[in-house]
UniProtKB/TrEMBL annotation:
<dbReference type="GO" id="GO:0004565">
    <property type="term" value="F:beta-galactosidase activity"/>
</dbReference>
<dbReference type="InterPro" id="IPR017853">
    <property type="entry name" value="GH"/>
</dbReference>
<dbReference type="GO" id="GO:0009341">
    <property type="term" value="C:beta-galactosidase complex"/>
</dbReference>
<dbReference type="InterPro" id="IPR006102">
    <property type="entry name" value="Ig-like_GH2"/>
</dbReference>
<comment type="similarity">
    <text>Belongs to the glycosyl hydrolase 2 family.</text>
</comment>
<dbReference type="InterPro" id="IPR006104">
    <property type="entry name" value="Glyco_hydro_2_N"/>
</dbReference>
<dbReference type="GO" id="GO:0030246">
    <property type="term" value="F:carbohydrate binding"/>
</dbReference>
<dbReference type="Pfam" id="PF00703">
    <property type="entry name" value="Glyco_hydro_2"/>
</dbReference>
<dbReference type="InterPro" id="IPR006103">
    <property type="entry name" value="Glyco_hydro_2_cat"/>
</dbReference>
<dbReference type="InterPro" id="IPR014718">
    <property type="entry name" value="GH-type_carb-bd"/>
</dbReference>
<feature type="domain" description="Glycosyl hydrolases family 2 sugar binding">
    <location>
        <begin position="42"/>
        <end position="187"/>
    </location>
</feature>
<dbReference type="GO" id="GO:0005990">
    <property type="term" value="P:lactose catabolic process"/>
</dbReference>
<keyword id="KW-0326">Glycosidase</keyword>
<protein>
    <recommendedName>
        <fullName>Beta-galactosidase</fullName>
        <ecNumber>3.2.1.23</ecNumber>
    </recommendedName>
</protein>
<keyword id="KW-0378">Hydrolase</keyword>
<dbReference type="InterPro" id="IPR008979">
    <property type="entry name" value="Galactose-bd-like_sf"/>
</dbReference>
<dbReference type="InterPro" id="IPR023230">
    <property type="entry name" value="Glyco_hydro_2_CS"/>
</dbReference>
Length: 951
């Protein structure tokens, strides 16, 4: 357990101990999905139906092997034949209540149950049936309890609500619909006279205002309110008189110079409320809160404590594959830390309120939160919605992390509910509408979903603040970090740009207990995350991390006159760059034939943190040693004031021309080179190697690597990936010790093969282009099923697209072959297939031997095998011919949405436009087949080491 987790756990324990002074709690269920309790259970239909057995609570009954599965969009899949699974589960459990609870108010609390929930205690109704899955509700059962004796609780849970609007809002949704009591159930005992709840409004000016709701007050007394800072130092106090029959008291006072809560500075305070009678404390409760002021300045922006902020946010479902929406506090903590690892500052709780622990962690670690009333394109009725708004806001009102209430999603807005939130939220947070159609701005904020780049620019020129609550839909490998850099620049540089929320955090893959525990993402419906179901990191995760880094460094390559000065922009809202820490490293990368990956650190040092205020620019001076250019690479790591790594930038210090010398240094033997020909082939020979070049097309036809005639299957290249070529002439000639074959084509392209005495087969090619192209370069064939692994020096370890090159680092990487299709099982990352960026050399380990290829020129992309970014009726973008390509240009990737499905990616911004190519392109590749001889007749091989540069 790391230090931050220990501190968080300690604070949670302290909070529970203090809470128990005011309320006694006894769980009837387990406390979370990992710590459950057995209840008796019966279900009316589906698996294991019609008989009593046991179920773990909290849980979803589908995950316990009961009933049938239902994805919210089944009505699309099954059309006219669709019917809701009308499943009803009966729960029973015996429990005891101590005699010491006599003369107390006893409530039973349900934190979440899908969907209609009817409760009986000892055969008596606890109250009206609760309708709505994601909301905490309670019943006063004081008059139904048998103290010191056995009690029985019976719960009837109907997966389908009797209220059509509840089904519309919660079930007709683009997510899994899972039944049962999925959050904890517990008894809560308080004194008869008690504080039932509080609502706090603590502003940036230090003013503190609280509504204190009371129950059972039958004597005069007073309420004392004490405020404590994070060190438990008393910083303010006041009191108010209470009279018999009072149900609400208000208190106001101020604290001087409080520390203010923001996502960058999550400073929390504690309010202790003491209810006294004749100087004796009869009830106490505590609440964590933060001093902060939220303002929507129409036509300007969103302001926290007087500072304009922009949301670097993402949408999150409450989710874990094995347990669905029944989760644990550790999962909540992991998710908040992952969101912050991406350098985000905000999260939207789509499409329902989350677990309470998630909000506590957002308060503690610092995230701006949109807390959302359910309503996925359909809305609650006013009658049902009013009750649920009340339950949602009463539970969540004192969390400083919540800066907006969201009234439904994409048309699921009941406008009659807009004014309901303020009835229970003393701080009067703004209400927004998360919508998907233009012209629905509310409270001065336009939240329209999935606008393209030009539409976004036009909206930002309008009268409203623009904060899309969903954008860059990340199904499969599209969206997410793809095109994000362009969108973020628009928002950052626009006065009315408020940032937005990517769709979505994690693939909603569910372990299907009816299909041998396979993970199901419901085809194209649920693989929408930048993480996998178990939080496996996709390439977009790292791209987002770089793009959203508050320390912004855009330096892609080091200039020839680089002197250790790094340009930097401060994209924090409140934090000076001098609060961050910087460390540099000079490294040596492993070489092509060493079989090792990673690098060796030669020297490291710390850079002085520059004084750069928010939104300003400056420089970081690294103070490198004079001979730094003698090393291979430079790394720079930025760490924030809390010790969290923001990002590590990497640069090559040597050109590929220098890197390619590593080939010849490793090849110490030379052999005579010769050329022969027959009717169809030129054959270049050197010792035991032979390379056959076709006379009709200039392509490599075969590779023989030993005297026994052992062949390797790498062949059929170089095929130019753009345009058609027709041979105009081919010749064989000697050049010193080398034998050469030159092929010329009618369109002006040329290919020159050279076999060197050291065994390197050198390929130089040239082609000219003018216009817009998806791809440029050459391809070869290699049987995919023969390939075992790849090792390369370049950017990695994830594949890239033209509009998502961010997030990858220079290193010597190694990846075992996998067939991962982004967003689908088996979620083995990084993916083996794809376009890889800025490769200096790559070595393929195959069943036939090793193939090593390097390049003399800079910025080469390597394509490995067949893969697609978006999986629809066809895969997109289209791939070049062959299955291993050496490219000067690669395609951008769109999103799954209609305006991009046919590769029309240019609507997503400048990075997503086709490659604008003009001129002649030249590249030289070096091929070596097998391993070099060390000189004693043995082939060189060293066992690989683990990558040094990791996440």
């Amino acid at each position: 357990m790391n230090f931050s987790l220990k501190i968080f756990a300690f604070l949670c324990v302290c909070s529970q101990l203090l809470f128990s002074q005011s309320k006694e709690i006894r769980f009837l269920s387990g406390k979370d999905a990992e710590h459950t309790e057995s209840w008796d259970f019966w279900i009316n239909s589906g698996r294991k139906s019609g008989k009593w057995s046991e179920i773990q609570v909290p849980s979803h009954w589908e995950q316990q092997g009961f009933g049938a599965y239902n994805y919210g969009r089944d009505y699309v899949t099954y059309g006219k034949n669709f019917q809701f699974h009308d499943e009803t589960g009966l729960y029973k459990r015996k429990f005891t209540v101590p005699n010491s609870w006599k003369n107390k108010t006893i409530s039973i609390v349900f934190e979440g149950s899908m969907t209609d929930t009817e409760v009986k205690i000892n055969g008596k109704s606890a109250g009206t049936v609760h309708q709505g899955a994601f909301y905490e509700f309670k019943y006063n059962i004081s008059d139904k309890i048998r103290f010191g004796k056995e009690n029985v609780i019976e719960v009837r849970v109907s997966k389908m609500s009797a209220d059509k609007s509840v089904n519309n809002a919660e079930r007709l949704a683009d997510y899994w619909i899972l039944g049962g009591i999925f959050r904890p159930v517990y008894l809560e005992a308080t004194s008869k006279q008690h504080i039932s709840r509080t609502a706090i409004d603590a502003r940036a000016d230090g003013s503190f205002h609280a509504d204190i709701h009371l129950k059972g007050i039958n004597h005069a007394g007073n309420i004392k309110v004490e405020l404590f800072d994070a060190q438990n130092t008393l910083v303010g106090e006041s009191q108010v008189q209470v009279q018999k029959g009072d149900t609400l008291k208000q208190i106001r006072f101020s604290v001087k110079n409080p520390k203010l809560w923001t996502a960058e500075t999550p400073d929390l305070y504690k309010a202790r409320f003491n209810l006294d009678k004749n100087g004796k404390k009869i009830f106490q409760t505590e609440e964590k809160f933060g001093f902060r002021t939220i303002e929507i300045r129409k036509g300007d922006g969103i302001f926290i404590n007087g500072t304009k902020v922009k949301m670097k946010g993402i949408n999150r479902h409450v989710w874990w594959p094995e347990t669905g929406r029944a989760i644990t506090e550790n999962i909540d903590l992991m998710d908040v830390k992952l969101i912050k690892e991406m350098n985000m500052n905000a999260v939207r709780c789509s499409h329902y309120p989350p677990d309470k622990s998630f909000l506590r962690i957002c308060d503690s670690l610092g995230l701006y939160v949109l807390d959302e009333l359910a309503g996925w394109q359909k809305k609650y009725s006013t009658e049902a919605g009013k009750k649920l708004v009340k339950e949602m806001v009463i539970r969540d009102a004192n969390h400083p992390s919540i800066i907006f209430w969201s009234n439904g999603n994409e048309g699921g807005h009941n406008f009659d509910l807009d004014t309901e939130f303020a009835k229970y939220d003393l701080s009067g947070r703004p209400v927004i509408h998360a919508h998907h159609k233009p012209g629905n701005a509310f409270n001065g904020i336009d939240c329209n979903h999935y606008e393209d780049y030009n539409s976004t620019r036009k909206i930002l020129e309008g009268e409203n603040i623009y904060m899309p609550t969903e954008f860059l839909h990340a199904q499969d490998d599209g969206g997410g970090g793809t095109s994000l850099a362009d969108y973020w620049e628009l928002h950052w540089n626009s006065g009315k740009g408020a940032g937005g929320f990517l769709w979505a955090f994690a693939d909603e893959g569910l372990v299907r207990t009816d299909f041998n525990n396979q993970i199901d993402v419901n085809a194209i419906n649920a693989p929408d995350g930048v993480l996998g179901p178990h939080r496996e990191k996709e390439g977009s995760f790292y791209a987002i991390r770089e793009i959203y880094s508050p320390v912004k460094i855009d330096l892609k390559t080091l200039p020839a006159d680089f002197n250790g000065l790094i340009p930097v922009e401060n994209r924090y809202h409140l934090t000076n760059i001098n609060d961050c820490r910087f460390e540099w490293k000079l490294v040596k990368f492993k070489t092509p034939f060493s079989s090792e990956s990673g690098f060796d650190v030669i020297q490291k040092g710390k850079a002085e943190s520059p004084d750069i205020r928010p939104a300003e620019k400056g420089y970081i001076r690294l103070n490198l040693p004079a001979d730094f250019r003698g090393q291979d690479g430079l790394l720079l790591t930025a760490t924030d004031a809390f010790g969290k790594e923001l990002y590590t930038w990497t640069w090559k210090l040597k050109s590929n021309d220098k890197v390619s010398e590593q080939f010849s240094k490793s090849l110490i033997k030379e052999f005579p080179v010769s050329a022969v020909e027959n009717d169809s082939l030129f054959i270049l020979k050197s010792d035991e190697k032979e390379f056959a070049i076709g006379k009709k097309d200039g392509l490599l036809k075969s590779v023989i690597v030993d005297k026994k005639g052992k062949k390797m299957s790498f062949r059929n290249g170089p095929v130019f990936v753009t345009g058609t070529t027709e041979l105009s002439g081919i010749r064989s000639f000697a050049e010193g010790k080398r034998q050469c074959i030159e092929a010329k084509y009618r369109n002006g392209n040329t290919v020159l093969w050279k076999l060197n005495p050291d065994g390197i087969l050198e390929l130089s090619y040239e082609y000219s282009l003018s216009g817009d192209y998806q791809l440029a370069g050459v391809s070869f064939d290699e049987p995919e099923n023969y390939v075992i692994s790849a090792r390369w020096m370049g950017k990695g370890p994830y594949h890239v697209w033209k509009n998502r090159t961010q997030g990858q680092a220079y290193n010597v990487w190694q990846n075992l072959k996998n067939s991962t299709r982004t967003g689908q099982s088996p979620w083995i990352y990084p993916e083996f297939k794809g376009y890889f960026d800025d490769v200096s050399w790559m070595q393929l380990d195959t069943a036939e031997g090793k193939i090593t290829v390097g390049t003399k020129q800079e910025r080469m992309f390597v394509r490995l095998f067949d893969f697609y970014g978006i999986y629809g009726a066809e895969g997109y973008p289209k791939l070049p011919g062959g299955n291993i390509s050496f490219l000067d240009a690669i395609p951008p990737l769109g999103t799954v949405l209609a305006f991009n499905i046919n590769d029309k990616t240019e609507s997503l911004g400048p990075e997503s436009e086709p490659n604008h190519l003009e001129g002649t392109f030249r590249r030289t590749l070096y091929f070596y087949f097998g391993l070099p001889d060390r000189g004693d007749g043995n082939k060189q091989f060293i066992m690989p080491k683990e990558n040094i540069l990791t996440d």
